[in-house]
């Protein structure tokens, strides 16, 4: 999970180096982040289906090689277009590995599902927090991506051989899940609630361009830590208060973070969206696991995770386009998106509560 974070939370550190190295504009290089979200999330259902059917080891092994190839290929890319190809291949591996890692917690730790998933996902922030200062100091993307790629090529395949899923699980099949109205309401809520997180992940260097360089560098470095640390914190709360209720509360907090951007409070916005936004993805995985069961959670959550591709496009390309027209308009877009996420999930809260109650009985809570 720590290596997975480098594709998303190290983008703010890599983006200026890539833009300068390939001599392209902000809008052009932002396509790289959009491709990451599309391929990372788009291939999760496919990888998740194989992992649920044949087990996670072989799937994770192949995905590990792809993830490493993304960084190795970036290091040797002669043009931005070749970079896009390798970054997309690496994003496929990253996405499948993310799904397997998070669903290991969903499947194995049912009594403390939200906390366990959040704790595993803490690595999604810590990896970038460690790497970003070195990336920022490197001054060149080629050496640092080569080092990351070689490290992944050695470590990730070894870890892949040590994992397995439990047996004797129950839950709705992907077909049953996607044919339900509840799934698509959860999907809509997930997409819109994650837009602020992906805005900060992809565009913090643009949003904070008026800040002193040292201050901006600190924000870029601590944002992954905030995102990662919020996951076990809100996960622990969710196990006590209820996953669905906690997710509604977190969605509401994210709206406040978007409002902070509108009033030019960049630092509070980064802190709020980092802590709450980071927790959103794992909380929605838990919501899905509660409503649809854990037997097919890797593929069901993989389908849900495709919403991140939509959110990534909205939070990078659309946000940057609006930002060039008017920062006010761009920040208003963030607030509207997050509000839709909170209101939609609140609308299905009472409908989904019985499923959470049944899940708690099965888990012995």
UniProtKB/TrEMBL annotation:
Q: TM spans, by residue?
A: 20-39, 82-101, 113-131, 143-163, 184-207, 213-230, 242-263, 269-291, 303-322, 328-349
Annotated coiled-coil positions are none
Q: Does the keyword Membrane apply?
A: yes
Signal peptide stretch? none
- Database matches in Gene3D superfamilies: MFS general substrate transporter like domains
> One Pfam family, short name please?
MFS_1
Listed A to Z, the keywords are: Membrane, Transmembrane, Transmembrane helix
Return the protein name: Oxalate/formate antiporter
Q: Which organism encodes this protein? A: Acidianus hospitalis (strain W1)
